[in-house]
Task: inverse folding
C-alpha cells in the first residue's frame, strides 16, 4: 500500500508530456520538447508535492508575460533583453502548467480554457509592447503603427482559427503551444540581437498571410460542403 502511494506521489515526466496528433506540430515540436519541457519539468518537480495547482502556474505564466511586455515597451536595449527573457520564462511556465495537470491527473476543461485565454492576452500585450518599444528605440512612428496593426490582425487570426474549429466541430487539443513556443524563442533571440523592428515586420507579415489563407480555406470548406 505504501509503495503505491509513493509511486502516485512521484513525478512521471513521460506522463506529463502531451502527445501531438497534428503532423505539422510533430515537425516543429523539437523546440518545445528539447528546450522548454526539460526546464519546465524542473519547476513541476519542485511544486509537485506542494499546494500549487496547474491554474496557479497559469497565473504565474501570465504575470511573467505581462512583465515581458512592460519591459519591451520601455524602448531600451537592456529592457529588450529583459523582455525577451521574461517572455521565454512565461513560455516555459506555460508548458509547466499542463505538465503538472497531466502528471497529477488534474486536467480540467476550465484550466485548459484559462490557459488559452491568458496565452492570447499575453501574446497581444507582448506584440503591443514590442511595437511601443521599437517606436521609442528607433524613433520611428511607422513602426508603432505597423506593430499595433499586426497585433490587431493577430486577434483576427485567433478568431478565424477558433471559428473554423467550431464550424468543423473539432475539439481544441491545445496543440498551438508548440508553435507559440517557437515564436517566443524567436522573440527572445531578436530582442537580444537588438532588433525588435524585425519582430514587428515578421509579425505583420505572418498575420496577413495566415488571415488570407484561413479566409480562403473557410470559403473552400463552404464550396466543398455545397458539392457534397
Result:
Amino acid at each position: 500500500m505504501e509503495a503505491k502511494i509513493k509511486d502516485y506521489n512521484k513525478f512521471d515526466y513521460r506522463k506529463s508530456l502531451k502527445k501531438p496528433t497534428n503532423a505539422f506540430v510533430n515537425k516543429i515540436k523539437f523546440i518545445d520538447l528539447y528546450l522548454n519541457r526539460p526546464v519546465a519539468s524542473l519547476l513541476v518537480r519542485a511544486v509537485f508535492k506542494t499546494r500549487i495547482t496547474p491554474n496557479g502556474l497559469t497565473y504565474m505564466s501570465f504575470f511573467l508575460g505581462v512583465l515581458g511586455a512592460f519591459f519591451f515597451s520601455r524602448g531600451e536595449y537592456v529592457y529588450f533583453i529583459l523582455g525577451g527573457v521574461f517572455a521565454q520564462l512565461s513560455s516555459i511556465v506555460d508548458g509547466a502548467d499542463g505538465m503538472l495537470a497531466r502528471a497529477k491527473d488534474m486536467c480540467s476543461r476550465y484550466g485548459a480554457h484559462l490557459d488559452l485565454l491568458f496565452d492570447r492576452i499575453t501574446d497581444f500585450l507582448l506584440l503591443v509592447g514590442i511595437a511601443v518599444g521599437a517606436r521609442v528605440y528607433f524613433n520611428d512612428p511607422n513602426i508603432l503603427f505597423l506593430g499595433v496593426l499586426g497585433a490587431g490582425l493577430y486577434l483576427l487570426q485567433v478568431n478565424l482559427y477558433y471559428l473554423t474549429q467550431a464550424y468543423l466541430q473539432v475539439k481544441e487539443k491545445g496543440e498551438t503551444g508548440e508553435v507559440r513556443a517557437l515564436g517566443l524563442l524567436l522573440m527572445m533571440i531578436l530582442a537580444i540581437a537588438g532588433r525588435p523592428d524585425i519582430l514587428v515586420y515578421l509579425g505583420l507579415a505572418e498575420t496577413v498571410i495566415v488571415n488570407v489563407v484561413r479566409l480562403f480555406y473557410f470559403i473552400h470548406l463552404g464550396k466543398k460542403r455545397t458539392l457534397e
About this structure: The first helix runs from residue 2 to 8. DSSP finds ten helices and no strands in the chain.
